[in-house]
Amino acid sequence: MAKTYEEALRWASSVLSPKGVDPDGARYVLEMRAGFTPSQLRLHDRDAVPAAALAQFEQDVARLANSEPAQYIVGVAPFYGDLFAVTPAVLIPRFETEELVAWAAGEQAAARTGLDLGTGSGAIGLTLAKLLPNVAMTLSDVSPAALAVAQANAARLKRRVQLTASDLFAALPGRFDFIITNLPYISRAETPVMDQSTLTYEPALALFAEDDGLALFKRFAAGVAAHLTPGGAAYLEFGYRQQPALAQLFAAALPQAQVTFRRDMADHPRMVKLQF
Ligand SMILES: C[S@@+](CC[C@H](N)C(=O)[O-])C[C@H]1O[C@@H](n2cnc3c(N)ncnc32)[C@H](O)[C@@H]1O
């Protein structure tokens, strides 16, 4: 039966809300499939959804009802004003990570080289390639499937960057003026309290780290100084309960670095800079 956009969204909400699924996902898929901005969708509230679009929407809502992330369903996620292609090989970029990018962008205008380690979709490195056009950015990841998505995004957004497959620093010779990274930091012990959608659909390789979520930070701390130019800096995102453990880790492993923690907009400690 024909439905207006408003009716289609109300129907989606009646399907999703009883299952505990946020109906905002339905709004997002409808906007992305139609090529509407949020305000354009509101302007079309009373218009009939074309039959083919409605059939597509019904399929999308069935997937949302199974907790599949809206961004994987439509294949794109917003980050820092751009739309990034995403597949289940990459983490869906989070808004919190935009704050880490803004921190580095605000301080690294004079840098010549930068590294985004564990780039996933390329959200961090490709955004910095836009904000800091004079910086030669290298984007690396241990996952070839993730790097393929980052490469597709570099082409889609027309950003010139170097892409390298590497287990942390292993295949990255040379030094960078700054390094930025959002490494996996979730402890397996947190699985019972994690969002079902994240657990089922996002790649475990992008989420979890051994040793209470600290394993990759420890390896990073062991390698970072050898990959920064003198006076270089590293910017890292971490879990909101990890600041005390990281303060200890960096003080012991990198006594020469000045360590500055920062809180995110929700007032959680989530970012750190290591200034050498
Ligand atoms: C939390 S995700 C971050 C993705 C993206 N940078 C973002 O912020 O949206 C972590 C990324 O690190 C990559 N990764 C995991 N272990 C790695 C390792 N040992 N070396 C390099 N990258 C790794 C994963 O494949 C994943 O893409």
Automatic annotation (TrEMBL):
The keyword Transcription does not apply. Methylates the class 1 translation termination release factors RF1/PrfA and RF2/PrfB on the glutamine residue of the universally conserved GGQ motif. GO terms for biological process: methylation. Keywords: Methyltransferase, S-adenosyl-L-methionine, Transferase. This is Release factor glutamine methyltransferase. Pfam families: MTS (PF05175), PrmC_N (PF17827). The lineage of its organism: Bacteria, Bacillati, Bacillota, Bacilli, Lactobacillales. One of its GO terms (molecular function) is peptide chain release factor N(5)-glutamine methyltransferase activity. Residues 110-190 form the Methyltransferase small domain. Residues 7-75 form the Release factor glutamine methyltransferase N-terminal domain. S-adenosyl-L-methionine binds at residues 118-122, 141, 182. It catalyses: L-glutaminyl-[peptide chain release factor] + S-adenosyl-L-methionine = N(5)-methyl-L-glutaminyl-[peptide chain release factor] + S-adenosyl-L-homocysteine + H(+). NCBIfam families: hemK_fam (TIGR00536), RF_mod_PrmC (TIGR03534). The keyword Methyltransferase applies. InterPro entries: HemK-like, N5-glutamine_MTase, PrmC_N, RF_methyltr_PrmC, SAM-dependent_MTases_sf, Small_mtfrase_dom. It comes from Lacticaseibacillus jixianensis.
